[in-house]
Amino acid sequence: MNSDVVIHAENISKQYRLGVINHGTLYRDLQSWWARWRGQPDPNAEVVDARGHRESKARIVGDRFYALDDVSFSVNQGDIIGIVGRNGAGKSTLLKVISRITAPTTGRIRLKGRVASLLEVGTGFHPELTGRENVYLNGAILGMSRREVSSKFEQIVEFAEIGEFIDTPVKRYSSGMYVRLAFSVAAHLDPEILLVDEVLAVGDINFQKKCLGRMQEIGKDGRTILFVSHNVSAVKQMCNKGLLLNDGRSIRVGPTSDIISEYVDHFNDHQAAEYVRATEPNPSSVAVLRLAICNAKGAIASQIELTEDFFVEVDYLLGTPMSGLSVGLQVILDDGLLTMLSLSDPEFAPERLNMRPAGRYKARVKIPRQILNTGRYRLRVGISSRFSVYDIVENVTFEVVDNVGIVQFMGWDRKGSLLGVQLPWDVERA
């Protein structure tokens, strides 16, 4: 392995055996029984990713499913690599293999240096131990002495913003508190390689920005970071290289801007104007069930005429009564530029503080004509409170088209403009 290479993956594949695993809940057992009684496929036997998306049948061979398929790449010291790909592309599985949480079925990975990882909430900490005890435990796992960890301890606690809870068992932490401490531990114990999954989407928005800043500092110190995210703006801002995964295979490694462009092309080729969750979520969870683009007539449409209003519909499950909940919508150009943001309940609106009963909800927002310019867009929808993000879906694309050609004046057209707003004008004789 070249002296500058700190991660070298050779022909990595990860297979899982298909079949129905014990569900562990009466709800799942009844769901399977009902499907069999009606002569329908068992939803609990389908291969789906963490957000409920059905996996490609091309990745199923016999009774085996390929989460990763013959992935090879190298990472040099000091590289900050953004790993991008559609939901279920294999990004999280790859980080688990690199961090040695799971072993590859075939192939091998060679690492040079200590590895710290921040993957899904629940990994890395012992729930019965306090925050303080888990900090020292993680340091010991990384091969650090107690004195070395103690020298970093105050920085870790200050960055995580949980000083008064540091001696509380982490099983009593909220998901946001857990992530803050987990990231702070991983980022301050001086690993040579830092692996960060999209777990940062859970938690305070300001803390996410703080984490991105800390990762940039780590990169400037010559350490190596692998960063999984759907936020292409963050990837562009942070990373000097990108790795594109699709259906468990590595498409290529290259300059960030090139990888983002290729990712957007892949994304647009595989998306539609409607997303429907493939499996029922946990009954007590908060989850997006459906996301759709509808034209002025209320029909699902992948093309929207510039001169017509259109609608975004979001069906979601609120598994437990909750206050302060909001549906957030981002409209993103195909080059990753965020063009519009809207919340169903503004942060300081009184109605957002009201307790909302558990149940299924439908949110619908009207986007007026001529707000967006012509072009191809994708939607990102999240359900959040002021401090936590519960679910994110980014599986719908649409195109705004101008079949009328409403602006052709002095050679001007709309293509060079980000927005195409029809503004109110007053014209009168002077």
Which descriptors apply to this entry?
Rossmann fold, single chain, alpha/beta, 2 domains, six-stranded mixed sheet, Coagulation Factor XIII, Chain A, domain 1, 430 residues, 23% helix, 19 strands
Summary?
The protein is of the alpha/beta class and 430 residues long.
What is the radius of gyration computed over CA atoms, rounded to a whole number of angstroms? 23 Å
- In N-to-C order, the SSE pattern is EHEEEHEEHHHEHEHEEHEEEEEEEEE
Structural class category: alpha/beta
Mean pLDDT: 81
**CATH classification, class level of the largest domain:** Alpha Beta
**Largest beta-sheet details:** 6 strands, mixed
Describe what this molecule looks like in 3D:
The chain is of the alpha/beta class and 430 residues long. The chain has two domains: 66-267, P-loop containing nucleotide triphosphate hydrolases (Rossmann fold, 3-Layer(aba) Sandwich), CATH 3.40.50; 274-429, Coagulation Factor XIII, Chain A, domain 1. 23% of the residues lie in helices and 31% in strands. The chain has a six-stranded mixed sheet, with helices on both faces. A five-stranded mixed sheet has the order 13-19-18-15-16, with no helix packed on it. It has a four-stranded antiparallel sheet with strand order 2-3-1-5, with helices on one face.
Architecture blueprint of SSEs:
Layout: E1 5-17, H1 26-37, E2 60-61, E3 64-76, E4 80-84, H2 91-98, E5 106-111, E6 115-118, H3 131-141, H4 146-160, H5 175-188, E7 193-196, H6 205-220, E8 224-228, H7 232-238, E9 241-246, E10 249-255, H8 256-270, E11 274-276, E12 286-294, E13 303-305, E14 310-318, E15 326-333, E16 338-343, E17 359-367, E18 375-384, E19 389-401
Parallel strand pairs: 4-8, 4-9, 6-7, 7-8, 13-19
Antiparallel strand pairs: 1-3, 1-5, 2-3, 9-10, 11-12, 12-14, 14-17, 15-16, 15-18, 18-19
GO molecular function: ABC-type transporter activity; ATP binding; ATP hydrolysis activity
Protein name: ATP-binding cassette domain-containing protein
Domain ABC transporter: 50-272
